Amino acid sequence: MINNNNNNNLFMSSLDRDATHEYELELISDSSSSSNMIVPTPLKSSNDKLGLSERALSAAGAAVLSAIIVNPLDVVKTRLQAQAAGVAYSHPMTNHTSRMAVFGPNMMFADLRCSPTCTRAGVHGTVSICPPDCFEYKGTLDVFCKIIRQEGVARLWRGTNAGLALAIPTVGIYLPCYDIFRNWFEEFAAQNAPSMTPYAPLLAGSLSRSLACTTCYPIELARTRMQAFKDFNSGKKSPGVWKTLVDVLSSVKTSENMKNNVQSYRALWTGLGAQLARDVPFSAICWSTLEPVRRRLLSLVGDEANAVSVLGANFSAGFVAGSLAAAATCPLDVAKTRRQIEKDPIRALRMTTRQTLMEVWRDGGTRGLFTGVGPRVGRAGPSVGIVVSFYEVVKYALHRQQHAT
User: Fold this and answer.
1) What pTM was computed for the model?
2) Buried (b) or exposed (e) across 136-157, using 16+ Cβ within 10 A?
3) Contact between residue 145 and residue 72 where contact means Cβ atoms under 8 Å apart
4) Can you give 107-158 as a three-state secondary structure string?
5) For 299-316, how does the pLDDT look when each residue is reduced to its tens digit (9 = 90+)?
């Protein structure tokens, strides 16, 4: 009886080691290597065991987790960029004359509340209120404080529903397609041009991101608008994704020069060029940095690899790669935000990414081009780390389960 148990334990541990080794080959194998021990064959065979639906499920779970955790930083980044583009965040009733004419002298405004440390606050009724310039955002922490005080903590998760609606199909397309394209490019390069193998992640990341962005762009447009604009009607429910998109179309259709239905629906893809100009280089930088870093980290672990080491290696590599890519592409992110929040439909359709960047440079110089870089980097590093590590750990678990079966 004892011998049978020992045999079973040895068999299961052998399966675990085999599954771990095969998973490592999937990530570590480099078809440009001169070693005959590591070749593209295990990479292909191990990937064939996981179908597109399993990859998409892993990616969608990772996207949900990331969207919920990092959404506040996305809101802060969007607010800073929108303010630089000219969006006013002070309440229209901060003007004393307008307030008196509309509501009378005894109306209280909870959303005009100043911080206790503000020396410029005035008292109206029983509420301490601020002048318009006190509503301006002066940095990342200032945005956090003012959103919490003036709009409530829940506002930091504004657009999370759009983020979830966007993240599931986007990452469900993006990561599985990246895996498939990378394997194709690596196999093709290994057979035809071995020196091009290191560029496979760059090409795969750019192509898969372009596909995902174009497919799901209207939801991205809605999310940016939901995060950028402050809702002053505290008694009414803030518009959701569908209402935001309907408002975009309505503003286009009521314009004098935009009667063509086909042209009006183009408004839902306003700023797509800027989005691709940001995301394609982001993906290229991210994946070309991430792949060698995580392969190096996994090679250090060797045969001792398990779910924890796979998670740690992927999160560390994703954090470094995401932070670097986010900082490098921040000017393009500023241009994308500015194009998405443009309220003049004719101007929105006529503006190009290059013109927008020149406008940002003219208004704010280098500082303007890197508006919101702090929260953007703070968001992208953990986000990429969470998505990639969660995705790879689930793949690793499914791989082990299928190998054992």
Assistant:
1) 0.72
2) ebeebeebbebbeebbeeebbb
3) no
4) CCCHHHECCCCCCCCEEECCEEECCHHHHCCCCHHHHHHHHHHHHCHHHHHC
5) 887 767 677 888 889 999
Q: Strands 127-129 and 122-124, how do they pair?
A: antiparallel
Residue among 392, 334, 350 nearest 258 (CA): 350
Tokens linked to 297: 């980290």
| CA nearest neighbour of 140 among 84, 193, 75 | 75
CA distance 239 to 243: 6
Query: CB atoms < 10 A from the CB of 129, how many?
Result: 23
Which two three-digit tokens encode residue 136? 């301006």
pLDDT digits (tens, 9 = 90+) for 337-390: 999 888 877 787 788 889 999 999 998 999 999 999 999 999 999 989 988 888
User: CA-CA distance, 204 to 314, in Å (whole number)?
Assistant: 18
Helix, strand, or coil here: 188? helix
Rounded Cα gap, residues 141 and 357, in angstroms: 26
Tens digits of per-residue pLDDT, 40-59?
A: 333 343 444 556 677 777 77
User: Cα–Cα distances in Å, from 336 out to 93, 118, 274, 275, 353?
Assistant: 30, 34, 5, 6, 8
Token pair listed for 89: 């965040």
**DSSP one-letter string for 35-95:** -SSS-HHHHHHHHHTS-HHHHHHHHHHHHHHHHHHHHHHHHHHHHHHHHHTT---S-GGGS
How far, in Å, CA of 162 to CA of 72, rounded?
A: 13
Distance CA 202, CA 158 (A): 33
State the burial class of residue 22 (Cβ atoms within 10 Å of its Cβ: 0-12, 13-18, 19+). Answer: middle
Q: Are 179 and 236 in contact (CB under 8 A)?
A: no
DSSP-derived secondary structure letter, 255: S
Q: Find tokens 């990616």 and name the residue.
A: 59
